């Protein structure tokens, strides 16, 4: 999938018109349209603004290798995203503890759903 296709897909998922996305990042709808059809490519700073407005990463927008689940993962909860970024800064032992807590919580939820 191309950069333009990803921009269009994420924009439509957020139910934004080209003009609305343009207003958020400081562009006209015409320029957003040019990005979406591949007639232009955003500069690095604009790519960053677009990624932020679309709740994704610049890597996701430009990377052609979508076979890696880490690239295609979309985390739209900004608070959770911030927390995960902080977890990435922890040492290996602390990261392991966080993973164990998450796994235990998810296992509990799966069991509760199964019992219902």
Automatic annotation (TrEMBL):
<keyword id="KW-0238">DNA-binding</keyword>
<feature type="domain" description="HTH cro/C1-type">
    <location>
        <begin position="7"/>
        <end position="61"/>
    </location>
</feature>
<dbReference type="GO" id="GO:0003677">
    <property type="term" value="F:DNA binding"/>
</dbReference>
<dbReference type="GO" id="GO:0005829">
    <property type="term" value="C:cytosol"/>
</dbReference>
<dbReference type="Pfam" id="PF01381">
    <property type="entry name" value="HTH_3"/>
</dbReference>
<dbReference type="InterPro" id="IPR010982">
    <property type="entry name" value="Lambda_DNA-bd_dom_sf"/>
</dbReference>
<protein>
    <submittedName>
        <fullName>Helix-turn-helix protein</fullName>
    </submittedName>
</protein>
<dbReference type="InterPro" id="IPR001387">
    <property type="entry name" value="Cro/C1-type_HTH"/>
</dbReference>
<dbReference type="InterPro" id="IPR050807">
    <property type="entry name" value="TransReg_Diox_bact_type"/>
</dbReference>
<dbReference type="GO" id="GO:0003700">
    <property type="term" value="F:DNA-binding transcription factor activity"/>
</dbReference>
């Amino acid at each position: 999938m191309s950069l333009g296709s990803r921009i269009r897909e994420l924009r439509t998922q957020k139910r934004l018109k080209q003009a609305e996305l343009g207003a958020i990042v400081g562009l006209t709808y015409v320029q957003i349209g040019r990005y979406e059809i591949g007639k232009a490519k955003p500069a690095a700073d604009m790519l960053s603004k677009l990624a932020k407005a679309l709740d994704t990463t610049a890597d996701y927008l430009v990377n052609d290798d979508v076979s890696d689940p880490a690239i295609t993962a979309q985390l739209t909860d900004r608070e959770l995203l911030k927390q995960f970024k902080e977890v990435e800064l922890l040492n290996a032992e602390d990261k392991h503890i966080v993973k164990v807590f998450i796994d235990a919580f998810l296992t509990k939820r799966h069991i509760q759903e199964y019992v219902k």
